[in-house]
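The instructor's notes for this session suggest beginning with a concrete chain rather than abstract definitions. Hand out the sequence below and ask the class to guess, before any prediction is shown, which regions might be ordered.
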Amino acid sequence: YLNIAFKEIIMSENSIEINLDRILKSLWSSRKLLAKSSLLNFAIVLILYFIITPSYLSSFVLMPSAKEGMTSYERAASLFGMVGSGDIKDEKLNSPDIVEEIIKSRSFSDELINQFVFDQNGQKIKIQDLIIPSSDDKNIYEVFNTKLRKVIKISQDIETGIYNINVISSSPILSQNLCNQVLETFLKVRKKILLSTTEEKKTYMDNQIGFLFSQMNQIENELVNFLEKNRDLSDSPALELKFERMKNELDITSELYWGLKRDYEIIISEEIGLVPGIMIIDYPALSNKKYFPKPSYFLTIFLISFLTINIPYVIYKNSLFKSV
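After discussion, reveal the predicted structure:
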């Protein structure tokens, strides 16, 4: 039984070798037909390469500053997630930066959608019309946000934390201008997020400082008028008591005023140190290199079509399947 089995295996292997040999000989004998069909295939792929609308890429590189633990930066982002659009997820706030979350947020889209850029012809185009040229959808902001994610590609180096933000468009100039606008909008929205925790506090302190300043001036004027009318207070204990009360009230108001002024200056200094927090390594540049279509893609398509269309076509023409 083993001998019979081995003989059958050898015969089947020989049959495969004979079949392959016949196919290769037939292809060689029909090499002119194969060359013509391959040339036609290559011409079709080449035409597709040139008629497809090209895409160009411009990019900028950001390096966030590393921080440990829950920082003011993260607390600002956390508050923004609660009182703002609510589209920045809480679980993302444990990282030292939220670059990707800002760019993907609804707040970023809402800010970018009404901005303008110049195309290669110098014409001013609204970014909304550029991303969604013809959209009658009522949820236009959601549609814009979805389409925008296909235009902006974000990658990050895990070891260094450096972000590479790529913007894709139909021309090199338009891609660069759109990339510049994305960077400008990112910095604007980021600043708004970071300062959202202190903005309400600053507004309250501004109002209180203004109120205390007016109160302090009012008390000072009343005290001056009182002393002008009552130059000798030693003869009247009641006048001395009233003077002490007015003086104490002025001291307390003055202390509150200058205390709030110091706190306000501290907040301003914290904001100055908070906003930078990120370094722009590379600014958007003009690139004439096509992002899509890439020649390698069409070379792959040609090779696949050659193997799956041209060769079977020649084999069919020579009726090899019938003789095998």
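Then share the key points. Residues 194 and 205 are 18 Å apart (CA to CA). The longest strand covers residues 55-64.
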